[in-house]
């Protein structure tokens, strides 16, 4: 069983990570997912669609640009993600972007802000999944303003 890159449990029935590959499907099957939320620039992998269809998992794709030293999500995108992530009928859910770091991280920080976590706590959680070990100022400002 191989979890997706940067896989993590956000809370019961809510998971996060990178784009699932075929080698991750057995692991994801064990999570008994109802929804996979894909925050990606395009819809390129038919294998993930086939997996979702075979497992009766709803796949929601929300297009976002690839991160490039700026925030690629908008308030509307984050609001849509939060509505899905807080809907019990959609859980268990796996939320992913391409690498499981920046885009997913910003969305999860916004969830934590909604849950009234302290800034230092949600930033520390973000950093556990961040490849460069830092939060760029645009990401911090976005979450603060959200």
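Q: What amino acid sequence fits the structure above?
A:
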């Amino acid at each position: 069983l191989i979890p997706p890159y940067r896989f993590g449990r956000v809370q019961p029935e809510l998971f996060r990570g990178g784009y699932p590959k075929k080698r991750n499907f057995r692991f994801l099957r064990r999570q008994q997912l109802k929804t996979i939320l894909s925050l990606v620039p395009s819809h390129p992998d038919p294998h993930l669609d086939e997996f979702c269809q075979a497992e009766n998992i709803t796949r929601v794709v929300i297009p976002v640009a690839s991160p490039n030293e700026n925030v690629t999500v908008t308030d509307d995108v984050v609001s849509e993600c939060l509505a899905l992530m807080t809907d019990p009928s959609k859980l268990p859910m796996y939320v992913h972007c391409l690498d499981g770091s920046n885009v997913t991280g910003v969305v999860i920080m916004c969830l934590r802000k909604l849950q009234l976590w302290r800034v230092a706590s949600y930033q520390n959680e973000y950093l556990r999944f961040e490849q460069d070990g830092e939060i760029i100022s645009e990401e911090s400002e976005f979450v603060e303003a959200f």
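Q: And what stands out in the fold?
A: The chain has one domain: 8-145.
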